[in-house]
Specification:
The complex is a heterodimer of chains A (357) and B (247). Chain A is built from 13 helices and five strands. Chain A is α/β, with parallel strands linked by helices. Chain A has two domains: 102 residues, abc type-2 transporter like fold (3-Layer(aba) Sandwich), CATH 3.40.1710.10; 194 residues, no CATH class. In chain A, α2 packs parallel to α10 and α6 runs antiparallel to α12. By secondary structure, chain B is of the alpha/beta class. Chain B has a domain of 171 residues: P-loop containing nucleotide triphosphate hydrolases (Rossmann fold), CATH 3.40.50. In chain B, α6 packs across α7. The radius of gyration of chain B is 18 Å and the shape is globular. The termini of chain B are far apart. The mean pLDDT of chain B is 90. Classes of the chains: A alpha/beta (357), B alpha/beta (247). The interface between A and B is medium-sized, with 15 and 27 residues.
Chain lengths: 357, 247
């Protein structure tokens, strides 16, 4: 072995990076973005509390309970007397939960949660239990107060796979599709055939739509394999209509194909495409409400999460899978997915302008 | 859009810059219809940039350019064939499928494209390889497939960017026969080359250097004006003279 040769190879690699500032920039930026997001999400500071309604109902210990619950940083209490409105707001996701207190000391305490998102339900249950323990201590009760949980949807307690199946479906459908199209389109450019396309009478929109049609079938096949495995092998239950599930997936995949094409114009080589993956995928996974609830995010991040297709696809699938809702209830989310797909076609057309005079 | 006598290409004080580099620096050139014009210049003289402007892939920075009487773009694209310097083909498709695809892209029906593809495959002597994947072809075969793709829609103007680089002499003669036969059907052919002896096969030759025209004429005229016996010597004479003028 000659150290000189090893040194020459190592030196060449370093020199190549020096002439590739974009790759070098991504090497620095990507881990920074990822660590900033993780640090923010796992840390306690800078998060918004989850709104929880307390239906006082004339309970003698209501003031103590409201104070102790509100003292917890993860929760913000809204006091109300209208239990029907509170339940409706929980169902629509406007508030994270509602605690219904009894009018007499021995009556039942009911915690109402939507039951579709473990990321929301967990903190609400934990905070309520902690507050009730303090109330019991201050009242000098020997036994803990009894609580019943009322999930507005979902049959009983969610299994982990039921809770996360919708999330996994959207993440992998999106990821695989993006990977497939971005690399394929990059090859079109590096092989020179894109020049041929651009020197032909084909318009940019024709090229993009042709690509979309060609890829959507394969991308959909991947998404359906994931879905079929979840349903038939993992026994994930889909409470709502299957066709709405398919519609969500089709729209998500279309958006992802277009994103892959649009972004592949900003990558000079395969390495950069791979570097784009964490940049495109992780913020959506972290901020899209897939594992951490969107409601607790700092307001600007919450707005950002509304731009991400994964946010809308995950909420829509969760509601259809677990709450069993239909088309009408997820209409807004579908519209957001359509808007994203259209925006990506526009971005693709703009990117193609660089390829033609 | 243009009469038969409209010049195929007119470039007037054409400039194209890439950052600080002036790839085309006031190029003047006119190519009459139905001629074979050779664009001669060393590497980096602006030949490929000029062809990419004509193909509608690059916008001029300044100056004017007309292709078949129009600005290069979607309107001229159906009448222009562009053969890239490196073969631009789909490696994982057979030869014939590549041709049919580009034919469809230029508006031929599938049936027309197949008929035309088979004719062209025969013309470039690849009939036995029609169903072979491009990635399994030799370099010369790829180059011939590349040429066939550029001719699939019977373009009125054929832009050939160093079509004979890396091609053996026998095939080079064959390719020139194709250019001649296409020209005989009424097409204009613009060939760039830095192989000087190829210039003698052209009706007219334009010598360029550093993005500018330094001389034009028939090969015989250029040799005579330079008092040279070969085009190569003539090129050096013109390039030298321009260098002396500049200094």
């Amino acid at each position: 072995m000659k150290p000189g040769r090893v040194g020459a190879i190592a030196g060449r690699i370093v020199r190549q990076f020096r002439h590739d500032p974009r790759t070098l920039g991504l090497i620095v930026v990507v881990p920074l973005v990822v660590m900033m997001l993780i640090g923010y999400l796992i840390g306690d500071s800078g998060k918004e509390p989850l709104p929880v309604a307390v239906v006082a109902g004339g309970s003698p210990f209501a003031p103590t309970f409201v104070r102790t619950l509100d003292d917890q940083s993860a929760i913000e209490v809204v006091v109300t007397t209208d239990d029907e409105t509170a339940r409706r707001q929980v169902g629509e996701g406007d508030i994270a939960g509602a605690v219904e207190l009894p009018s007499s000391p021995g009556g039942p305490i009911v915690v109402v949660v939507a039951g579709t998102d473990p990321g929301v339900q967990g903190p609400v249950m934990a905070a309520t239990a902690a507050a009730l323990r303090q109330v019991a201590t201050s009242l000098g009760l020997s036994s803990p107060l009894q609580v019943t949980v009322d999930r507005l949807s979902g049959a009983g307690r969610l299994s982990t796979i039921d809770a996360y199946a919708p999330v996994l479906e959207v993440v992998f459908a999106f990821f695989f599709t993006f990977l497939l199209t971005s690399v394929a389109f990059l090859r079109e450019r590096s092989s020179g055939t894109l020049d041929r396309l651009m020197a032909s009478p084909a318009t940019r929109l024709e090229v993009l739509l042709g690509y979309l049609l060609g890829f959507v079938g394969f991308a959909l096949l991947q998404a359906l394999i994931i879905l079929a495995y979840a349903v038939w092998v993992l026994n994930v239950n889909i409470a709502g209509p299957d066709w709405v599930v398919l519609l969500v997936i089709v729209l998500l995949v279309i958006g992802s194909v277009n994103l892959g094409i649009a972004l592949s114009f900003y990558a000079r080589n395969e390495l950069q495409v791979v570097q784009f993956i964490p940049l495109v995928l992780l913020p959506q996974v972290f901020l899209g409400g897939l594992f951490w609830p969107v409601q607790t995010l700092w307001a600007p991040l919450r707005w950002l999460s509304q731009v991400f297709p994964l946010t809308h696809a995950a909420v829509a699938l969760r509601e259809v899978f677990i709450a069993g809702v239909g088309f009408a209830e997820v209409r807004g989310r579908l519209l957001a997915l359509v808007a994203f797909a259209v925006a990506m076609v526009v971005l693709g057309v703009l990117a193609l302008r660089k390829q033609r005079a | 859009m243009s009469t038969l006598d409209t010049p195929a290409i007119v470039a007037h004080r054409l400039v194209r810059t890439f950052g600080a580099v002036r790839a085309l620096d006031g190029l003047d050139l006119e190519v009459p219809a139905r001629t074979i014009l050779g664009l001669l210049g060393p590497n980096g003289s602006g030949k490929t940039t000029f062809i990419r402007v004509l193909a509608g892939l690059l916008r001029p920075t300044a100056g004017d350019v007309l292709v078949l009487g129009r600005h290069p773009g979607l309107e001229t694209a159906p009448h222009v064939g562009y053969m890239t310097q490196a073969p631009a083909l789909y490696d994982d498709l057979p030869v014939r499928d590549n041709l049919v695809f580009f034919g469809r892209l230029f508006g031929l029906s599938t049936r027309e494209a197949k008929v035309r593809a088979d004719d062209l495959i025969a013309l470039v002597s690849l009939t036995e390889k029609a169903r072979t994947l491009v990635r399994d072809l030799s370099g010369g075969m790829r180059q011939r497939t590349n040429l066939a793709c550029a001719m699939i829609h019977r373009p009125r103007l054929l832009l050939l960017d160093e079509p004979t680089v890396g091609v053996d002499p026998e095939l080079r003669v064959g390719l020139w026969d194709h250019f001649r036969s296409l020209n005989a059907e009424g097409s204009t052919v613009l060939v760039t080359t830095h192989v000087m002896e190829e210039a003698d096969r052209c009706d007219a030759v334009v010598l360029i250097d550093a993005g500018r025209t330094i001389a034009e004429g028939t090969p015989a005229e250029l040799r005579e004006r330079a008092g040279a016996s070969t085009i190569e010597d003539a090129y050096l004479w013109f390039a030298n003279r321009r260098g002396e003028k500049a200094s």
